[in-house]
Design brief:
The protein is mainly α and 152 residues long. It has a domain of 95 residues: Orthogonal Bundle (Arc Repressor Mutant, subunit A), CATH 1.10.10. 49% of the residues lie in helices and 5% in strands. A two-stranded antiparallel ribbon has the order 1-2. Strand 1 and strand 2 form a beta hairpin. It is elongated and about 60 Å long. The two termini are 31 Å apart. The relative contact order is 0.17.
């Protein structure tokens, strides 16, 4: 599995919103703040936040004092949900991707399909058991004042 820029930026934006949620009890963050803190281009971030909002992970408020906030607490959002939303299933190869329509020409005699299935399942298990609350906790261990000023 490889995470694209889309998945990377979306998860980093959610981390930022999760840190803000925990520190400011669900306060709003403006796109510009998220973009600056996570070094994400604003125009690209706008598109990603819209996808996350349509999927029910974010709420937004328009206007001068507007911005984005999480629609549910960080402990209720898993990394797996967001990766699947942005990237699709975490399958290492098409033959174990549940959404793939391609058929393998050597599937009958292939000894690798079960291995790739185990890899997919292991990746899914990790992603599905890491919440954004846990990501915040891990980030807190590495935070420097220059990058973020939140305290959990």
């Amino acid at each position: 599995m490889k995470v694209s820029t889309k998945g990377d930026y979306a998860t980093r934006a959610l981390q930022e919103l999760s840190m803000h949620y925990k520190h400011y009890n669900k306060g709003l963050l403006q796109i510009e703040e998220i973009a600056e803190r996570q070094d994400i281009p604003v125009r690209y971030l706008e598109q990603l936040l819209l996808i996350l909002k349509r999927a029910g992970y974010l709420e937004s408020k328009r206007g001068v004092n507007g911005g984005y906030s999480l629609a549910k607490p960080p402990h209720q959002i898993t990394l797996g949900e967001i990766i699947r939303l942005m990237e699709g299933p975490p399958a290492p190869i098409y033959c174990v991707d549940p959404l793939s329509r391609d058929k393998c020409s050597v599937e009958k005699g292939c000894g690798f399909q079960s291995v790739w299935g185990e890899v997919r399942d292991a990746i899914s298990d990790i992603l599905d058991n890491i919440t954004f609350e846990e990501i915040c906790r891990r980030a807190q261990l590495k935070i420097t004042p220059k990058i973020m000023s939140y305290q959990i």
